[in-house]
Amino acid sequence: MNYNFDEVVCRKHTDALKLEALAPRWGRTDLLPMWVADMDFKTPTFIVEVMKKRMECEVFGYTVKPESWYEAIISWQKRRHKWTITKEMISFVPGVVPALAMAVQAFTQRGEKVMIQQPVYNPFAQVIRNNHRELINCPLELKDGQYHINFKLFEKKIKGCKLFLFCHPHNPGGRVWTREELEKIATICAQNNVIIVADEIHADLTLLPYEHIPFASVSEEAKQNSVVFASPSKAFNMAGLATSYAVIANPTLRRHFESYVEGNELAAGNVFAFNTVVAAYNKGEEWLQQMLTYVQGNIDEVVSYIKENIPQLKVIIPQASYLVFIDFSALQLNQKDIVALCTNRAHLALNDGSIYGEEGNGYMRINLACPRSVVRQALAQLKDAITSI
């Protein structure tokens, strides 16, 4: 089956965050919304169909986790990522961001140190600060157009920390970490008694020729000292269904995490939380491959257009995800003026790079999970805005 990703879907009157937040956040509504990380593609029909089927029974009561949910996750991780897991390792969580906050609360105490690597997805810092832990930043280094870990600095910064929140693949830079890098992280954290929490929500968006390697699969150290969060929500455009899961091999860590989740009554999913995951993982591979091919075309379009028409900008080419980090620093504007340029001149709603840490100053993040006609419109508006400076 050939899927149509060129279709422009109207999301008005659906309470879509991407649209409803324009006025309160940007002060205007005449913007192309290319910010929050959901897709403007239709959620796949095989997911919609199981939701419709469930709705035929007009009772929406409490729901248990079916065996098919566990089986679909186990099979998907084995097929897609060569990772062998068991039912016992899997726990439901209502979303990866809530799960990050749960992990901070479950594994650390008020005032203890939690490390991240900025620039990084802004909730990483938020869940640390909002829960009154001390944020330790080990900045990533940009070399040859990609982010890298300074392991000498990593070893220094990790000392005294209780937890390391790891973005794998990276957001907003789109970096896919190598086995060697993952093994080093595992060894250093084990030596310093630091638990690794790996956010792998973008794993299924890894682009060719790169390969996502689940953190817990790289070594016994990684397996026994990590908590992995995953979900089909980004890959299949179902974030609004609030369905994710944790994979924790170490039974002691797992019991500790589950006791916190269950103690706060967060372990039960909604009525669509399980059948949609089963549909995505059992029927979604062809749709996913076509979508990734289309997104790669959008990325190629952006890279080529900017190189030819807006050479002042530089693109960090993602190895995973439909999110692209663009460097505006050559314009020699401060961050406030870069945001104003994109908003008031280009009429684009993009993510301000500074929200990912001070290392994001000079950057903006754009979401390319949309029809190519929208991408082309955004590029033309951006070119006109920069030309008018």
UniProtKB/TrEMBL annotation:
NCBIfam families assigned: C_S_lyase_PatB
Co-factor(s): pyridoxal 5'-phosphate
Keyword vocabulary terms for this entry: Aminotransferase, Lyase, Pyridoxal phosphate, Transferase
InterPro entries, sorted: Aminotransferase_I/II_large, C-S_lyase_PatB-like, Class-II_PLP-Dep_Aminotrans, PyrdxlP-dep_Trfase, PyrdxlP-dep_Trfase_major, PyrdxlP-dep_Trfase_small
Keyword Lyase among UniProt keywords: yes
Family stated for the protein in its record: Belongs to the class-II pyridoxal-phosphate-dependent aminotransferase family. MalY/PatB cystathionine beta-lyase subfamily.
Name this polypeptide is given: cysteine-S-conjugate beta-lyase
Domain (Aminotransferase class I/classII large): residue spans on this chain: 44-381
